[in-house]
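Record pair follows.
FIRST:
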Amino acid sequence: MLKNIGYLGPVGSFSHEAAESLFRPDLYRHTPLTSIPDVISAVDKGSVDLGVVPVENAIEGSVTATLDWLVHQVNLPIVAEFLFPISQCIVAHPDQKNTPANKIKKIMSHPQAIAQCRVYLKEKYPQAEWVFTDSTSQAAKIVADSPNEPWIAIGARQAAVMNELDILESHAEDHSNNVTRFIVISKNEDTWSKDSKLFKTSLQVTLPKDYPGALYQVLASFSWRKINLTHIESRPTKTGIGNYFFLIDADLPVEHVLLKGCIEEIEAIGCKIRVLGSYPCFSFLEKAIH
């Protein structure tokens, strides 16, 4: 029986492209879901085997819906990371492809996609209203269903092809290094083969109260061991103003002697540590490897 991959849909979204790049469609079933919490909850309930969700974009930063749901709502390990290049396309219905830029009334897309193109949009379509949708795919569908409206959408090339839309601009993002980091989640930590050159461990660190310099002590534990950290972020504990925990990504597997020693040292000063996952990391160049 084919394993079922849940991803942030609908069909034609960037998450769909990333999921199919990492998990070949001829070897896996792919199930689009409405929201990031829906994907994570589906994995938790067992209705899908694996979930693919965005966690960070090189331009817009962390996807807080993913981080908060993983930390506060479920206890699921991250089993892989996948870096996927994002190319935002400006698309229009064929009947509107020759509409002058100053006549475009609405630009539709997911908030993240619009944010990644904000400078381009202000220069090219300064008069157009920005309309936020649940996904880039939904925006493409709305434009496809509205041939008489001077509207355009921002989204993936696949969404344009599926909805028979014309691509007016294939690289509308404001920065060329537009890459999104996706993570794969599962109930089973051993789901993924560990044949990657890069391995990473994600930690949730909660500092002890009334301990001046605790964060410095935590970072020093990594520093003197020369453990490279690729991500550090504070997130609210949701227990009151000023209460935060830290999310830290380290470039070592959790079983490595240096990282094990680091975790023990941090716990010794009274910090609570939760391992969110220890996993291989892949890039788009290694697509469809599984």
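SECOND:
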Amino acid sequence: MITTSAPSMLRALPAEHRQRLMRLAREVTFAQGTRLFEEGGRADRFWIVRTGTVELDMRVPGRRPAVIECLHHNELIGWSWLFTPHVWHLGAEATTPVRAYEFDAAAVRSMCRDDPALGQAVSQWVGDVLAHRLRSARSRLLDLYAPYGAGSPG
């Protein structure tokens, strides 16, 4: 399993931008086993984990969903909300009880449009998370389904 984490909002955004975003946050909880979203569903919100663990998974035809990454404290759950067509590319499930900050995607996108510096910072942060998730997905799928794993020559 991939253990390195994507950049957290705390590390990625200047304090002023974090504070503005946090004004839009709503505290939520998810019971263990709750599906936060499904691949292909409408991406209209995102979360920052406060406590607990969320697994990101990917549908694989003819197999069980492949777990791509485990998310923990201060990590972003969801990036599809920022990019059209605003449809989830992965699924997510709480594997422990989770407390998180929830953000309305439309409100954050509007705030980013109104403040280009904030928009650029958020786009860079989410883009970095996206790049990390793509690397994680590639490595994990190779580990699961390639004949010799990700690190072995073919």
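COMMENT: Residues 43 and 86 are 5 Å apart (CA to CA).
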